[in-house]
Every structure is written in structure tokens, then in C-alpha cells.
Amino acid sequence: MLEPSTDTPVIDRRRPKGIYVLPNMVTLAALFGGFYAIVMAMNGRYDLATTGIFVAMVLDSLDGRIARLTNTQSAFGEQMDSLSDMVSFGAAPALVAYEWALRDLGRWGWIAAFVYCACAALRLARFNVNTHVVDKRYFQGLPSPAAAALVAGFIWLATDAGHDGQGLQWVLFVLTLYAGLTMVTNVPFYSFKDLSLKKSVPFATLVLVALGIAVINIHPPTVLFALFVLYGLSGYVVYAVRKSKGKPVSVLSTSTDEPDERGLHE
């Protein structure tokens, strides 16, 4: 006589993983900012196009912080953020720059725009690969939002002054190439990630923040573009100072337990 089977089927009652709404809605809003910039550039509204890129920058700086504060980080969110950045800070600035002035340079114009777009993609891919081995205090190369701010900030400033791009084609050409190529260098740029919003700060810090807001409001296009130009040069200053003092200039960590990452730190 056969013994009754004691094996009972195990039913996996785990619910399928969902998607966290809040941080991904912010990321989608940032993506919309980049898409909006492209559409406005196609319609000749470069003031609104540059505004869309800067709004995307603000939203991009918030989605990660919101995810950490609400403990809603996810691999999906990281990939979504990277794809959003490619549109808002890679394709959008390149296309806005091309439509505004680079088109007049013929093949040189679209080459500059493509180099910027390609460097943004390479920079984001490298960032995703090196996330766990890079010194959190620094970015490896100019971050894509700052590169986008250089290009969009120049167009915003020139448009605000009444220029339509004529006579500024080669200036934008050089700036676009500089922003693009600096993204894929190993130059260290301060990331501000060691600044915590949860820590108490002296009262004077709030006064300085208020003064900073007041200064920006004097003339936002000029002040913001100047700030991003200084930031875009700061990495080379840090690199030169470290090099002159004999300090390591690489922002990659000096040790890791991951075998696939051997050789990254040489």
C-alpha cells in the first residue's frame, strides 16, 4: 500500500514588488522639464527652454533626497533617475544649443552638440558603474546637471540680453565642447553630499543663505551662470592643488573587496 505523500506544495504568498510613487513622480517631473525644454526650443522659445532645464535641475536634486528621507530607495528609481538625467541634461541642452546657434555652424554645430550628448551618456554610465567605489565627497568629472547649467545658463543670459545667437556661435561651440568633455574627465568636483540637512548649523549659516538668495535675485541669469562657471572651473583648481602637493588626484576609493573592481584604483 502506498504511503500518502507528506509533501505539500509551497505557495509563495509574497506580493510582487511595487514602485514607490513619491520619488519617481519627482523624477518624472524632472524628465518633463527636459522634454519641455526640447519642445520649447523647437518653437523658438529659448527663454522657456532654459527654464525647463533649470527646473529639471532642482527636481533632480530633490528626488534622491526624498527617497532617502522616506526610505523609498529602489533599483528601479536609480535607473529611472539616470534615464531622466540623460534626457534633461544630455539630449535637451545639446538640442537647445543646436537650435539656438550651433545650427549656423553646419557640421561643426551638430558635431559639438553630439559630442556633448555622447559625453553625458558616457558620464552617466560611468557614474552608475562606479557608484560604490567613488569618494562620496567628489564627483568624477563634471556632473551632468552642472554641465547642462553651463550651456543653458549661457543661452539664458544671452537671450535675456536680447541676443538671438548671431555672433555667439563659436562661443557656444567652445562652451558646449568644454562642458561635454569635462564630464568625462577624472577631474574631482565637490559633490556637497557630506552636507547633512539633519545636522544643526550656526545661526549665521541661515543669514548667509538669505544673503545668497538676495544676491541671486539681483539678476538670476547673470548670477547663476557665474556660479556655474566658477563650479565648472573649480574641479581643475582642486586637481592642480592636489597635484602640486603630491596628493592623489583620483576620486576612486583606495580599496575594495569586489574582485570585479580590481585595477580601477591604479
TrEMBL record:
Cellular component terms per the entry's GO annotation: endomembrane system; membrane
Main location: membrane
Catalyses which reaction(s): a CDP-1,2-diacyl-sn-glycerol + L-serine = a 1,2-diacyl-sn-glycero-3-phospho-L-serine + CMP + H(+)
Entry's EC annotation: 2.7.8.8
Keyword Acetylation: no
Protein location: Endomembrane system
A Pfam short name: CDP-OH_P_transf
A GO BP annotation: phospholipid biosynthetic process
Keyword Nucleus applies: no
Record-stated family: Belongs to the CDP-alcohol phosphatidyltransferase class-I family.
Protein name: CDP-diacylglycerol--serine O-phosphatidyltransferase
Species of provenance: Tepidimonas aquatica
